[in-house]
Write a structure and sequence with these properties.
84 residues, mainly alpha
């Protein structure tokens, strides 16, 4: 009976990966994770750059137009200040 048990134990060891294979799998998963993080960071940087370009350009509204529009919102601002 002990021979059968040792044969089963020896057979189950063949199914388990060895340490070298496990280290390779870990390294591959870490590399995939790092690659995904780099892609996310690159996309975020591209979005940030696009927004900086967008907001650094002139809006096309003259100072006079901006001030006239600002006067239209003055009553609304007063209402909100009275609300709180």
């Amino acid at each position: 009976m002990s021979e059968a048990k040792s044969a089963i134990d020896a057979g189950s060891l063949d199914v388990l990966p060895n340490a070298k294979d496990l280290m390779k799998q870990i390294a591959l998963r870490e590399a995939e994770k790092a690659s995904a993080e780099m892609k996310e960071r690159s996309a975020a940087d591209a979005e940030k750059k696009a927004l900086i370009e967008k907001f650094s350009k002139a809006s096309g509204v003259s100072d006079e137009e901006a001030q006239a529009g600002d006067r239209n919102y003055q009553p609304c601002r007063q209402e909100w200040s009275n609300f709180g």
